Amino acid sequence: MEGRTPMKLVSIISCWVDTLELLPFCIENHLQFCDGIIVMWSASSNHFVKDDRMLRFVATHNYDRVLFHQLEPVRSLKPLVNETRKRNQGIEVAKREGYSHFFTADADEFYHPEDVVKDKTLFEEPAINGIVCRVRVYIGKPTLYCEDSATLVPFIHKLKKEIYCGRIHEYPFAYKNKVAQIDPSRRLNELNGIIMSDTIMNHYSYLRRDISLKVRNSTAKLSNRFATIKQDVSRAKPGYVSELYGRPLQECENHFGIII
Fold first, then answer.
1. Which end of the chain is more exposed for a tag (fewer CB within 10 A), N or C?
2. 146 - beta bridge partners?
3. Is the confidence at residue 186, as pLDDT, over 90?
């Protein structure tokens, strides 16, 4: 629209070594629809397990339009607080870099570019401050997924001066029937003008070379479900009913060319 400042969109990716094999594919995907990427990384997990592979990756990889920022967890803080701190630091970097819109992500989260192009047009309506989308989770292989009916994820939001992430109960869509459906580290303090999009976030949550590395260091406290996750990953095939999600796995093409 004439006279309106063009959108300058940044992806803020939170990353530790458990998603290192997915990070190059994620960067390639997000650069298709973002003006830039900020990778917030740490050598230690939020459970204080240190691994130098992430450090070596950052030292040997140089991408156009990608900034790497290191932020280590604080031992006196809980994992959720450290994860939220990492996302908020990324938001502050995005403000300094002059972006107008942003979304937070992990390195195992992918979007179809055509969906994002469509979502960008939603912001032509001035009253829209942000959008939320549904999740499709992949298990065992990049070609096997099921719908995650219990989870939503905040997607593109306006990068306002005072915006931040936190355990904000009032964020729209955060709860359904008093059950949380949005990660507390990703809820925003923007309470108005938030709408649901038809876009799907493709979450390769259980696609890892070493699934135990993810489970044992997850901010979401997955360790008590390790046996179930391991079973789902080992038995994954079309039609298998996931114990985690209670839904059958469906087969699709490898949309983002992921190889691990």
1. N
2. 137
3. yes
- Residue 58, burial from CB neighbour count under 10 angstroms (0-12, 13-18, 19+): middle
**Which residues are CB-contacts of 27 (< 8 A; sequence separation ≥ 6)?**
13, 37, 39, 63, 66
- The C-alpha angle with vertex 48 and arms to 45 and 51, in degrees rounded to 5, equals 60
pLDDT, averaged across the chain: 95
Alpha helices in 33-125 (DSSP H): 53-60, 79-96, 113-122
Do the Cβ atoms of 13 and 66 come closer than 8 Å?
Answer: no
pTM check: above 0.90: yes
Determine contact, residues 172/194, Cβ cutoff 8 Å: yes
User: Which domains occur in the chain, in start order?
Assistant: 9-251 (3.90.550)
> Which two structure tokens, joined as six digits, stand for 205?
């949550």
